Amino acid sequence: MRIGYGEDIHRIVKKGRPLIICATPISEDIQIDAHSDGDCALHALCDALLGAIGEKDIGYFFKTSDSKWEGAPSSLMVEEVRKMVDEKGYKISNVDISIMLEKPHLSPFREKMVDKIANLLIIDKSQISIKFGTNEKMDAVGQGLAIRSVSVVLLEEK
Ligand SMILES: [Zn+2]
Fold first, then answer.
1. Is residue 127 a contact partner of residue 92, using CB atoms and an 8 Å limit?
2. Which of 26, 47, 84, 102 is most open to solvent, judged by the fewest CB atoms within 10 Å of its CB?
């Protein structure tokens, strides 16, 4: 078995890209600073998967200098990373994702997010946990200046 951990943070800005989390559009009113679509949760998930297979970080494989990824859906990154996991001879045991955002409340979107992750990783919904929290008004996340996500995955040999 192999475990992987990933985390990501994006700034919330006045003019950026509309907030998307776990390939689910959340709000046009909240915009974030990003080269790709800025899906914070998917970036943390990619890094966790890459970590579990002993690979380099997401920025190494999907460079911000590459115009191919400008505004690109991060789901494409997850699909590529999933293939890497597969090629290394591992399958996903479970995925645990936490998302910290002051507002809006994300729980109404949970089911859709789980569906999206299940489809992207080709795993069962029972293998996925997505949890939400605020930062109790502290630091950048708590002041509504950023969104942060952390992710842990467990892989097992096929
Ligand atoms: Zn990111």
1. yes
2. 84
How far, rounded to the nearest angstrom, does the alpha carbon of residue 104 sit from its chain's CA centroid?
A: 18
| Coil, strand or helix at 115 | helix
Regarding pTM above 0.70, the answer is yes
Beta bridge partners of 7: 150
DSSP SS3 for 43: helix
User: What SS3 class is residue 62?
Assistant: coil
CATH architecture of 2-157: 2-Layer Sandwich (3.30)
Let me know: does 91 contact 139? Beta carbons within 8 Å: no
Centroid of ligand 1 to alpha carbon of 22 (angstroms): 12
Going from the Cα of 75 to the center of ligand 1, the distance in angstroms, rounded, reads: 12
Q: What is the pLDDT of residues 26-58, one digit of tens each?
A: 999 999 999 999 999 999 999 999 999 999 999
C-alpha 143 – ligand 1 centre gap (Å): 19
Q: What is the pLDDT of residues 101-134, one digit of tens each?
A: 999 999 999 999 999 999 999 999 999 999 999 9
**How remote is the CA of residue 158 from the centroid of ligand 1, in Å?**
29
In 3D space, the residue among 77, 75, 72, 76 whose CA is nearest the CA of residue 34 turns out to be 72
